[in-house]
Specification:
Elements lengths: L1 H17 L13 H7 L8 H16 L15 H30 L12 H32 L13 H12 L4 H20 L7
Length: 207
Amino acid sequence: MVKNKLLAFITLIIIFSLFPLQNANSYFVTFKEQYYRLFHTHYNRSPDNYIENIYFLERALDAPFCNPLYALALIENEIQWEKYRYLFMMHLNIKMAEQHMYAGNLYNKRNAYFYNAPFRDLNLASLEIAETYFLAALYYWEEALIWAERANEGRFRWITLTRVQFWEDSAFRIQNGSLNYGRTINRELNSLYSVREQFLAMDENTY
């Protein structure tokens, strides 16, 4: 009797192992909209968290759009669908620029104090990482400008996607110049280059 129960228990284990349990709400992440939903703001701003967001945004940039029925805005015709795609690509590139700027600031050095001379090489390495992030941010910002220009074409003038009004506002602000990450990024790069020169000028007599 015990032997039969044990045999039945083992049989059940084998059967369940062949058919692993899956979450009823699980799904494959395939489309831009799905990857974008994985992007989020971290309370703990660490390099790993920014890299995580950059990964999701990169996948979103490369992924196809979902069916208009499941878009993040109400899509009722082809011209709305076209503007939605331009705004979404602009928004993703803006977020990529932001995440790279935030990550770069974690490694950036605002000043080259004389007492940092013993750690000159470490500071220079940190500045190199910051520069890489800032240059990437500049690239994505320039991509955002291209998509914003397309979204601001005259034929879209009376097309407003209210569910993504923030994207609409960003496109408008880029057009009138009130949103200009390029200016910010270039300012950070110029400051970085100046600080780097100060570190490079340090020698054993500096401290």
